[in-house]
Design brief:
Elements: H1 6-14, E1 19-24, H2 38-54, E2 57-59, H3 82-97, E3 103-108, H4 114-127, E4 132-135, H5 139-152, H6 157-160, H7 166-176, H8 195-204, H9 223-247
Helix pairs in contact: 2-7, 2-9, 3-4, 5-9, 7-9
Length: 249
């Protein structure tokens, strides 16, 4: 939609394009080798591909900054307070609901955004009962999908990682290879991931896990795997979203 004009957007809605998909990324460090808009460009392409797979759907502008306090020890990270992001999401819903959209879907590509999305969707759904508002907030399932695909390539969960590891690095290589510093590929934290490490990450920052800001090992990342990650993740997320939409009819 950001590349369209209001006349064509209005005509598309009138012709049945009543679903809108919005990615929610972040502006935060992704190790010494990936750009700070990593989550945003991944979220942007996922939202685009999901909209195409859903059919009769448009893509609204991706929210480019998210909740990234746990990355603020690294230069370049910009973080919103949870209530700020929540307010932005609410304003998106209020704006888009005025134009005739019947389904509004948010796709986060950054785990720190989940709480804000949950709260915003829950609050607004009661106000807009004739509109189906979906926030894909099962970030664990999201990561598990990525790990399952990585395992098919012989990549372990620890190497695949959860932040700037093999999976994310491959995805960015597929989207914007010229922005990746391959000569800086280096393993970060490659230990087990669970509630304890998650608690440490959010309470003390990612630097408590990894001094280079990487959770995973990007060493074996490549473009072709990145394309497959994006396509398969799109398929899995689209299936889940269709189930969520049908369950809320």
């Amino acid at each position: 939609m950001e590349e369209m004009n209001w006349v064509d957007i209005g005509n598309a809605i009138k012709s049945g394009f009543t679903t809108v998909v919005i990615g929610i990324g972040s502006t935060e460090q992704h190790g010494p080798h990936l750009p700070t808009h990593t989550d945003t460009i991944i979220g942007d392409i996922l939202a685009n591909k999901i909209a195409l797979k859903l059919g009769n759907a448009l893509q609204a502008q991706t929210i480019r900054v998210g909740c990234s306090d746990h990355h603020l020890s690294f230069p370049g990270t910009i973080s919103l307070e949870k209530d700020t992001l929540k307010a932005i999401i609410i304003d998106y819903i209020r704006s888009l609901s005025k134009h005739g959209f019947q389904k509004i879907i948010f796709i986060p590509s950054h785990g720190g955004n989940i709480a804000a999305i949950k709260e915003a969707v829950e609050e607004l759904q009661s106000d807009y009962q004739d509109i189906n508002i979906i926030g894909y907030t099962d970030i664990l399932k999201f990561i598990m999908y990525e790990w399952q695909i990585a395992n098919e390539f012989g990549i372990t969960n620890e190497e695949a990682g959860a932040h700037a590891g093999e999976v994310e690095t491959s995805q960015v290589l597929a989207i914007a290879e010229n922005q990746v510093r391959k000569e800086r590929f280096k393993p970060g934290y490659v230990g087990p991931l669970g509630p304890e490490t998650e608690k440490l990450l959010y309470e003390k920052g990612i630097s408590a896990l990894s001094e280079i800001g990487v959770v995973g090992d990007p060493t074996h990342a490549d473009v072709e795997k990145g394309k497959i990650y994006i396509e398969k993740l799109t398929e899995n997320l689209t299936k889940d979203i269709k189930k969520l939409l049908s369950s809320k009819k």
